[in-house]
Amino acid sequence: MLFFLSHIRDIFARSHSRSQEIALSRRAFFRLLGYLASCVFFSLAAQGHV
Questions:
Q1: How far is Cα 13 from Cα 5, in angstroms, rounded to an integer?
Q2: What gap in Å lies between CA 7 and CA 27, rounded to an integer?
Q3: Which residues of 1-20 are buried (b: 16+ CB within 10 A; e: fewer)?
Q4: pLDDT digits (tens, 9 = 90+) for 1-50
Q5: Buried-most residue among 5, 9, 21, 30 (CB within 10 A)?
Q6: What is the 3-state secondary structure (H, E, C) of the chain?
């Protein structure tokens, strides 16, 4: 499984420039933050705190 993931990472690295990798990583990070924030918001809303 670890070999598979490293192979996928190698394919990704070869198909994108360094600046593209940084931009994609940043976008993925902020999407993850947005997802987690929405989970917290809906959890608080379901409990009646919001």
A1: 12
A2: 22
A3: eeeeeeeeeeeeeeeeeeee
A4: 778 888 888 887 788 888 888 898 899 999 999 999 999 999 999 998 76
A5: 21
A6: CHHHHHHHHHHHHHHCCHHHHHHHHHHHHHHHHHHHHHHHHHHHHHHCCC
Q: How many CB atoms sit inside 10 A of residue 25's CB?
A: 10
pLDDT value of position 13: 77
Q: Give pLDDT, residue 2.
A: 75
Number of residues that make up the chain: 50
16 with 24: CB under 8 angstroms? Answer: yes
Q: Are 37 and 45 in contact (CB under 8 A)?
A: no
Tokens of 13: 């690295």
